[in-house]
C-alpha cells in the first residue's frame, strides 16, 4: 500500500524528521533523506501492525496535495513509500476468479513492471476502488 510521507529538513545537528500524515502518531527520522525513507517504511509497518492487533482499520488516506496545503508541513519535502501492510489486516485467502486471458496478461505485465505480484496488485486495486 502506498503512503504519503512528509520529511522535515535536517541540519548538521538534527536528523531528517518523517511524518506519515495519514497515520496519526506515525513518525520517524533518519540521518539522510534515504535513511528517512527507510525509517518511514519501518515506522509504517510497525504502526499498521499495532492498528491491526488493536482491531482498528487503516484511516482513509487523503491526497498528497491536501497535506501539502497544510501550514503544519510548510517547506517540508514530500514522498510516497510502498509498504506491504495488507497482511496485518487479515489472513490471506486463496480465491478462484475468472478473468479474460488478455486482461490477465496485462495485469501480470503491469504488476511485474511495478515490482508487484499479481495478488498484490489486485488487492491494492480493489482497496483503491472501494475507497472511492
How does the major sheet shape up? 4 strands, antiparallel
Distance between the termini: 15 Å
Spatial strand order of the main sheet: 3-2-1-4
Residue share in helices? 40-55%
Silhouette? elongated
Overall number of structural domains: 2
Taking all Cα atoms into account, the compactness measure Rg is: 17 Å
Low-pLDDT runs of 5+ residues are none
Mean pLDDT score: 91
User: In the CATH hierarchy, what is the architecture of the largest domain at level 2?
Assistant: 2-Layer Sandwich
Number of strands: 4
Q: What is the name of the CATH class of the largest domain?
A: Alpha Beta
Topology record:
Elements: E1 2-8, E2 16-19, E3 27-30, H1 33-53, H2 64-68, E4 77-82, H3 101-113, H4 118-131
Antiparallel strand pairs: 1-2, 1-4, 2-3
